[in-house]
Write the structure tokens for this entry.
Amino acid sequence: MLENVPILSLLILIPLIGSILVFALGNTRKAAASIALVFSAIPLALSIFLLLDFHIGATGYQFIEKYTWIESYGIAYHLGVDGISVPMVFLTALLCFLAILFSWDVEHRTKEYMGLMLVLEVGVLGVFTALDYFLFYVFWEVVLIPMYFLIAIWGGPRRAYASIKFFIYTHVASLAMLITIMALYFEAKPILGYATFSIVDIASVSGNFNYLFQVGAFAALFFAFGVKMPVVPFHTWLPDAHVEAPTAGSVLLAGLLLKMGSYGLIRIALPTVPDGANALMPLMLAIAILSILYGSLVCLAQKDLKKMVAFSSISHMGIVLLGISTGSQLGIAAAVLQMFAHGLITAVLFMMCGVIQHKVGTREIPLLGGLAPKMPVAATFMTIGFLASLGLPGMIGFVAEFSVFVATFDAYAWILFLPIASVAITAGYYLWALQRTMFGPLTDKIDTSHVHDVNWYEAAPLAILAILIIFFGMFPGVVMDYITPSANIISAILGVG
Amino acid sequence: MINLSPVYSEIIILLFAVGLPAIYYLTRSEKALSIASLIGIIAAMIPLLIFYIEGSQSMVFAGGLLRLDAFAVAFKLVFLTVALYVTIASIRYVQGERHLAEYYSLILLATLGMMIVASSLDLITLFVGLELASLSSYALVGFRKADKRGIEAATKYFIIGALSSAISLYGISLIYGITGSTMFADIGTALATLSGMDPMILLAIGLLIAGFGFKVAIIPFHMWAPDVYEGAPTTITSLLASSSKKMGFVALFKIFLIGLIAVKADWDVVVAVIAVLTMTIGNLVAISQTSIKRMLAYSSIAQAGYILIVLPIGTEYALAGGIFHIITHAFMKGGAFIIVAALSTVTLGESLADYKGLGKRSPFLAFSMSVLLLSLAGIPPLAGFASKFWLFSSAVDAAIVPEQSWVLWLAVFGVINSAISLYYYVRVIKYMYVESGPEDPIRVPNSMLLAIAITVVATIVIGIFPSPVLDLCREAARAFFSGM
């Protein structure tokens, strides 16, 4: 029934129209926030439509739209989704909607804030649906600009430094990708016999590329996407950006922007230069383990709650990379599931950091304590979020991590004991932090007399996320059914069973 | 009867340029001057647009000294477009100054000189056009006689300009001595048949690089540019950065890619090194500037470095990318300087700190500046991204040929430099939106807003729909290499 509706274009277009409307009409806080909320709710509805209308199990891309854009160089406006992009599209639409809802009380320059949030949504949705390298790159870079402003204008005290660091760091990585894209284009042109920037077309012939070229191209792409994920040692922009970003900015940064990195690896790097990917699997494995352990160990030492959550993201994205580095069907599918899980869970965590900062006035763990009786609803959500993040069975984080570990054992056997050690560390820092902030006696280091519980616009997104975390934890198959067939194709290209 | 159609545009511009003082004498109206200039510029565009739309054949004029082809048309349109928005922006910027007839007339004469360069098939013709443009610009830089900075800039510009002309003329005479011709095509043929290395050729190449290097302000011949750009009236800075410099590139393309292509092995590595140094030093020095005009001047030097990679790559694809970048740069840099000019009409200073809080004081100017700067940095979907993309990709393309593989480094340095440049471009945006400053709103003259809007709209539209401009550039590059 939806065959003739360009649903992907609508998904991208509606937030864009919304942002124009916000800039044009959002002169009061309420007007800006309402328009933004409506124009992020429609893409969410569309993305659910997309989920329902998607043919599970069918191979290849669906909902394809292709129009010539720059004819002389074979550049097309080419969109499409498969089982890997569909959950990401849903996650994007969901988190953008919830982040805007959560930002209901932003009073400083609301118009620009809401407008930029919608532009950000346009960019991320574009990245997850583009099937043309040029288009992909355009969306990829478009994401940077609103995020730069979100950090620079609404961020914390060191926002100027953090925003420029974020912009330049990730831009350098993008440029490495840009050169690789050009190289892939020129390599594929003589083999294909025509010029195209199509991700699909180039991947169809790239198996013939010279081995060294493939290794070089994969290394460059791994750098480009690794910075975005981020993996150690390219992670240093992330704690700064996170700590300074406003809450909704952190939610989108961790929930979506990091996923762009791992998505790029899965969508582009692995299937396009499979020989290069296979050659560098050991390197990916090593970096994954390093990121997992480093990220979780650093968390133990953090005093700032938000910084702790930021470093835990490095560790959790390391688990995504671990799944990818197996190259197996299960490993890649589990990596995508972990991306999805991390998107939901990390959103709760950053929202909770925001709530505490907002209500209590500080995120310094040593100053906090015994907040649970003051804010019972918040404490509940925080507990759910922390438990989900440390991988408690019954929640989606557990399923995802467990699947990655199974795939890792399958591929690398006893090496698994290294990354799995992080599970204990993770449980340690989360429980310890929870204990020191929410439970125990009420602190006397700061004045907590005025602290009250979450508002409706904070509770609603937290509740929706908590429900989804538990629902998908109980029924992970719902998501896995989408992911698995597409993951199988990629691992088949890699030649890994 | 001579067929004058290849030079219709030049004739129109010339008539208006010499007619302006007469118009002023008759009307005594400043308005009449600017309107007449604008009519002249638009009228001169018409034959070019007809030529392009009809896809006409190349036409040779004056016994093979000038040729109207897609390449010349592309550049003439660039020069005229720059003249157009500079004139629009000037209406209020120079209002009430003395010698306004000469001011507008000199802009037209400078443009005429550039147009001759774009059409030239011969070193002497090229030199004549170049000098016409240069002499007009010296006078324009020193247009405000009471402004000490302007006079200093004009003097500096004149001395450096005259010196570089002399150096290039020396190079030209050596080339003539070696090859017996001043026609690019004949020089190319003569050098191709030359066997062995002639030290004279090396000397000539060195002199030509130095002479024209001064004109386009590449390292190490760039010292004058920031001072002159800073001292000149800002509308004229816009003209210098957007079209006068581009004329220098036309000259370099013609001399190196046609005249000296046979001895490319003698100069390609040297020029490549100069290109990399130019972009790197330009960018690094730009970071430490506190004056926005100087910052933009150094960024112009860096951008010249990007365009210079066309020469060592030397393919049609690269030339198309270079022309594309020249076109987009004309809009981006020209627009940025006009914003600076517009703000100076409301006595806003030229230091970066003066731009604090501009986002609140003038949302349109701050937005326009952000678009232009992000485009200069090469952020999609703006025009500067598209043009840099083609420019740098030409290096990747050329590097596929094994013996040419070293040119890949030009792309790598290009993108690294793009990343460096992002820092100082974004810093301006940070000043405008993040830092707080005075709150009183700013109103700048409508004519300047129009000029700025032209450049901003062009930057966005070319970025999203590059095809028409890109096709023009490809055709221009094809015409350049065919039948010279």
In short: The CA atoms of residues 362 and 443 of chain B lie 7 Å apart. Chain B touches chain A at residues 374, 379-381, 385, 389, 392-393, 396-397, 400, 411-412, 415-416, 418-419, 422-423, 426-427, 430, 433-434, 466-467, 470-471, 474 (CB under 8 Å). Residues 148-179 of chain B form the longest helix (32 residues). Chain B has 20 helices and two strands.
